[in-house]
Amino acid sequence: MTQHNPWPDEGNTGHIWDDDIRELDNPPPLWWMLAFYAGFVAIIFYVIYYPAIPWVNSHTKGVAGWTAIEEYNQDFQVLNNWRQRTFAAEEEQLRALDVTEIIQDDNLRAYAINTSRVLFSDYCMACHGAEGSGNPNFPILANDDWLWGGSVKAIEAAMINGRVGNMPARGMMGNLTDEEVIEVAKYSIALSEGNPDAEEFAAGKALYNGKGMCMACHGPAGKPLAPNGAANLANEINRFQGVPDNLQASRLDSYIFTIKYGVNVRQGGGFLENTRRAEMPSFKERLPDAEVNIKRLAVYVHSLGGGQ
C-alpha cells in the first residue's frame, strides 16, 4: 500500500495497492438502501404478527395466533386424511384378515412391510437394532434363531403377550460346582463348534446330559426339539454377550456366567443377584391401534430374514 494518493478528489479511502488499485468510498445504490430499510420494516411487522419475543415463562403470541405446532398438526391431519382415503381398502384388509392370510397376499404383505418401518423404529429398534440387526444382549431378528418359533403367528403372539426368558441358576442353586459349571460351558461351546464328542469335553457332556439337566430344554444335540424358549446351542448365535460389567469378556466367561446365575431367576421377593434379565413386554397396550399395528409389525419382522 502506498501513502501517495494521485487521485485526491476521486472519493477513494486513500488505500492504494500496486500504485493504481484503490478502495472507493461510494454510497450504496438506492435500490440496495431501500431494500435495507424495508428489512427493518419487515422485522417490525414480523414481531407484531408472529410469536417473537421470549419472556420468562412465555412469549409474545402475535396477532396472527400462529404456532409451528398448530401448523404441523394441520398438515399432519391433511396427510392422514389423504392416507385414509388412499389406503382405506388395505387398512380394512389388515384389520379383517389373520396375519397368516396377510403374508400370502403379495400386495398386502408389501403394504404391511412398507408401513411398518416407522413403527419398528419407534417401538422396536432401541432393543433389536436397525432392521433387526440386534443390540448387545438383545435378540437379533434378522436370523433364523427363534427361541419361541419364527412363524409369523408366533411373532404376533410374542408381541401380544410378551416373552419372559427362564433358565435355572445351575451354579447358585446347588446343582453344579464352579468346576462343573466350567465343564458344561466348555461342552456347550463345543456343541456350537461341531466337535462335542472330543475327549476333552467328556466330563461336560456327562454333566450336560445328567446332573446339569441341560438336555431337558436344550435337546441332546444342543438344539431344542421344539420351540420352548431355550437357546439353540448348536449354532454360534449367542443371546448374551460378555458379562454385565464387561461386554468384551470371552465367550467362555459369558457361558459360565449364564449357567451359574441363570436367566430371570427369582429369589425371595426379587431377582437373584447377577441373574441375566431377558424380558420382552407386551405391546397390545403400548402400540396405537394395536389390533392392526401388531399384525403389521409381525409381517415386517417376519420379512427381515429370519421368519420361518
TrEMBL record:
GO BP field: oxidative phosphorylation; proton transmembrane transport
Positions of the Cytochrome c domain: 111-192, 199-303
Example of a GO cellular component annotation carried by this entry: plasma membrane
Protein purpose: C-type cytochrome. Part of the cbb3-type cytochrome c oxidase complex.
PANTHER family: CBB3-TYPE CYTOCHROME C OXIDASE SUBUNIT FIXP (PTHR33751)
Family: Belongs to the CcoP / FixP family.
Name under which the protein is recorded: Cbb3-type cytochrome c oxidase subunit
Gene source species: Thiomicrospira aerophila AL3
